[in-house]
Design a protein that fits this description.
Number of strands: 20
Structural class: alpha/beta
Helix content: 25-40%
Strand order of the largest sheet: 3-2-1-4-5-7-6-8-9
Number of helices: 17
Shape: elongated
Length: about 525
């Protein structure tokens, strides 16, 4: 089907506007390549999710103002309006401002909204809409900046902002990054800027309903955003999907997403509650399970990081409480974590496939598995040795005891945390190389004991730590900053775990799991 053909898709008898928008989106999606979708962060919201998001809204006003900042075929607006009309028979006027920059989608959005207008007219409701063919961020970034907080009379107030914004990383020289510097720290994802701007465009009693990746819940790159976001709004609802694949299946997207609903804080510090809703996928979204948590149990708003923990069951709740009872941390035990200094493409001329007289070992991410270092492990263009010379010495580390921890995991990995103990070999070189996709854990100006190395490696590989990590980490990155902030059990407990494993002389994950489970009484959780 061509793009021009999608414009001729006709209505079926008494079809819901969201159903029509869904069919238009599905047909259009089949006309563009996967590369185009990825480059533009363009993933169409399935009707089941759109209707679920629409069902989160309620209002008793006669006039309603809606913003859809990345409307696509306007399925979210349609689903929202359908729900509001069903709930509130007193609605007389609905106004919509929609944004869309894909020229090929404008006519489809126009078709959806034109039909929505007819559908509302039959119910005695006036519907006025504007489709803006502008970049939403460039159009409204000024509301993020302190001198413009009063908006000089230009602020548009909305009762509802509903969106499935684009998801892709922005380069540092992108005009949108320069426009939104107040929330930028490192390499941002465009969706976070949509969210930040939306917080400043709500009425005092307005609500924002977004479906977005989970990646904003933790990590340094989103730290400035989280601080800004929680300064202006409070979350009162989050929905989690058990399946990564199910959410945007027809667009072949493997992405951890969530739905959130938030409202303005209006300068008030309120001890609010957050509903956490969960389902496996689209098939059971209407039967989602819900739990209510105090906000302080999920987000420490007094902390610098403001990491969001999202438990999905009672065991995860118990694990979060267990970690909160620990007062230790790597820093407190004079233990540090850093990122491997060797960036392979920059050091290419110093990397060797075979050992030479002046080389030392170079460890890559593929060398590290749970509790084990596979070295040498030959792989194309991943030389296992690096020259020791004046140019490389600043990027080599002293040969001593470490724990190596992968910085990245595959999205379908069973574990996010994959660590292995490394012990100094007396006859080895004074230096070793660690590639940039590995973290290494060490004691500055000192040495980690064998029991510390084994104990830390074991707990990082444990199901306990992996489960806790997944409650706040929604991406494949394992950042050094997050690990520094992660609560740790008492150092003596860590040493005892290491000692027990050394005495067993069996470092299989079966043994690691049994030892850690016994120490932390996981069988009771």
């Amino acid at each position: 089907m061509s793009i021009s053909t999608t414009k001729n898709i006709s209505l079926t008898n008494k079809e819901q506007p969201s159903s029509y928008a869904d069919r238009l989106g599905s047909a259009y999606s089949n006309t563009v390549s996967q590369t185009f979708k990825k480059d533009n962060g363009q993933f169409f919201t399935p009707q089941a999710i759109a209707q679920f998001m629409g069902s989160l809204a309620s209002i008793d006003k006669k006039q309603i103002d809606i913003l859809d900042p990345g409307c696509g075929t306007a399925i979210l607006t349609c689903a929202l309006v359908e729900n509001l009309v069903e709930q509130n028979p007193n609605i007389g006027v609905i106004n919509l401002v929609a944004y869309e920059i894909d020229a090929n989608l404008i006519s489809l959005a126009e078709k959806s909204l034109s039909y929505l207008k007819e559908w509302l007219f039959e119910r005695g409701i006036s519907f006025k809409y504007i489709i803006c063919i502008h970049d939403f961020i460039i159009e409204h970034y000024s509301c993020l900046n302190p001198p413009s907080l009063n908006f000089s009379g230009t602020k548009q107030n909305f009762d509802f902002i509903i969106s499935n914004p684009p998801y892709f990383k922005l380069s540092k020289d992108d005009s949108r990054v320069k426009a939104a510097q107040v929330i930028i720290d490192g390499q941002p994802n465009v969706y976070s800027i949509f969210l930040a701007i939306a917080t400043r465009m709500l009425k005092d009693d307005g609500e924002m309903i977004f479906i977005i990746p989970r990646s904003f819940t933790s990590g340094r790159y989103f730290n400035s955003f989280r601080n800004y976001f929680f300064n202006h709004v409070q979350i009162d609802f989050i929905h989690l999907f058990g399946s990564r694949k199910d959410t945007f299946l027809r667009d072949n997207v493997l992405q951890e997403t969530l739905i959130l609903k938030a409202k303005p804080k209006n300068g008030k510090k309120i001890e609010s509650e957050i509903i956490v809703s969960t389902c496996s996928g689209l098939h059971d979204i209407k039967q989602s399970k819900q739990n209510i948590y105090s906000q302080k149990d999920l987000i420490d708003l007094d902390s610098k990081e403001k990491i969001i923990h999202l438990p999905t069951n009672t065991k995860e709740e118990a694990i979060i409480k267990l970690f909160k009872n620990w007062n230790g941390s790597l820093n407190q035990y004079n233990i540090q974590i850093s990122t491997g200094p060797i960036v392979a493409f920059r050091a290419e001329k110093f990397i060797r496939e075979t050992p030479e007289e002046e080389t030392t070992s170079l460890y890559w991410i593929h060398n590290i598995t749970k509790m084990e270092i596979n070295y040498p492990f030959k792989k194309n263009n991943k030389g296992q040795y690096v020259l020791i010379c004046e140019q490389t010495k600043p990027y080599l580390i002293p040969n001593r005891n470490y724990i190596f921890l992968r910085r990245f995991s595959a999205k379908d990995d069973k574990s996010r945390l994959i660590a292995a103990p490394y012990f100094l070999l007396p006859e080895a070189s004074h230096y070793i190389g660690v590639e940039n996709k590995l973290n290494y854990i060490y004691r500055p100006k000192g040495h980690l004991s064998r029991t510390e190395v084994m104990g830390i490696a074991a707990i990082l590989n444990s199901k306990l730590f992996d489960t806790y990590f997944r409650t706040f980490n929604g991406n494949v990155n394992v950042s050094a900053a997050e690990m520094k902030a992660m609560p740790m059990p008492p150092l003596e407990t860590i040493k005892e775990i290491g000692k027990k494993l050394i005495l067993l002389n069996n470092f299989s994950m079966e043994n690691v799991s049994k030892v850690t489970d016994d120490f932390f009484e996981l069988n009771r959780l």
